[in-house]
């Protein structure tokens, strides 16, 4: 696809602008994080368990809060992100918090060109695969970076949730569940600060669950489980309702909001 590199450059520019806004947002709560609060949610904490002494590769890490949270728990972490500004802030936080994580700025699909070591865990979460046009090279890279017996874990917004256009502040069903054609959206604000005046320009793709599962199987991973949940840990869609447990659900819930998948390299 001739214009594909342009998709990533437009997305990189948008994410570079988002970093400073997100770093000052209530959602990311950077001051509480610096004081010791974990940025990790119950799903990923339960799935990965005790990571002390394990090597962990975090894909599409934004400005590194989750990477550094795993590092605080004793993992030896490397974070990867497309955004120069995100990686720069991650490195600053790592130094300020006196942790030993490393961060690499690159397209996630090119990770194996920049990182040659293998890991006990490859981890990615919330709003990651929708930036990728094809999951087969992504899954192949994951398999390359895992040790034999190593674990891959993803927790992600459900593909049904991405069938809707949210740019006008409400959910309008517009896109196919698994859409090969690129989706372009341009809107004011970001999911972490909807009143921000920055203009987000984004190219993305929808991937059904079968795309995710089959790409990983084809890459040589064994699927351990796939779970779907009617709640989100983040208030990122219109009109969500906060539960007593601090999660968010949709009024008149008819479909899952997130899924999690764990796989092993045989």
TrEMBL record:
Entry-linked InterPro entries: Methyltransf_11, SAM-dependent_MTases_sf
PANTHER family linked to this entry: TRANS-ACONITATE 2-METHYLTRANSFERASE-RELATED
Name of the featured protein: Class I SAM-dependent methyltransferase
Pfam families: Methyltransf_11
GO function terms (MF aspect): methyltransferase activity
Stretches assigned to the Methyltransferase type domain: 58-154
Top-level lineage group: Bacteria
The keyword Methyltransferase is annotated on this UniProt entry: yes
GO terms of biological process kind: methylation
Keyword set includes Metal-binding: no
Keywords: Methyltransferase, Transferase
């Amino acid at each position: 696809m001739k214009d594909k590199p342009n998709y990533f450059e437009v997305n990189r520019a948008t994410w570079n602008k988002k970093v400073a806004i997100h770093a000052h947002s209530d959602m990311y709560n950077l001051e509480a994080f610096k004081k010791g609060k974990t940025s990790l949610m119950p799903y990923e904490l339960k799935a990965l368990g005790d990571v002390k002494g394990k090597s962990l590769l975090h894909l599409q890490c934004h400005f590194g809060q989750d990477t550094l949270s795993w590092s605080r728990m004793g993992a030896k972490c490397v974070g990867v992100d497309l955004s120069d500004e995100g990686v720069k802030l991650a490195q600053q936080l790592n130094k300020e918090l006196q942790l030993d994580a490393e961060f690499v700025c690159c397209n996630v699909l090119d990770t194996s060109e920049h990182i040659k070591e293998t890991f006990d865990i490859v981890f990615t979460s919330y709003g990651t695969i929708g930036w990728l046009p094809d999951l087969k090279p992504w899954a192949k890279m994951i398999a390359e970076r895992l040790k034999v017996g190593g674990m891959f874990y993803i927790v992600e917004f459900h593909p049904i949730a991405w069938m809707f256009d949210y740019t006008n502040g409400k959910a309008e069903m517009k896109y196919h569940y698994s859409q090969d054609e690129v989706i372009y959206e341009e809107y004011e604000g970001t999911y972490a600060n909807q009143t921000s005046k920055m203009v987000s320009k984004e190219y993305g793709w929808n991937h059904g669950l079968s795309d995710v599962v089959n790409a990983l199987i084809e890459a040589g991973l064994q699927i351990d489980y796939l779970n779907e949940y009617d709640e989100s840990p983040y208030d990122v869609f219109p009109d969500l309702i906060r539960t007593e447990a601090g999660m968010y659900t949709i009024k008149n819930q008819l479909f899952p909001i997130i899924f999690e998948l764990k796989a092993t390299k045989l």
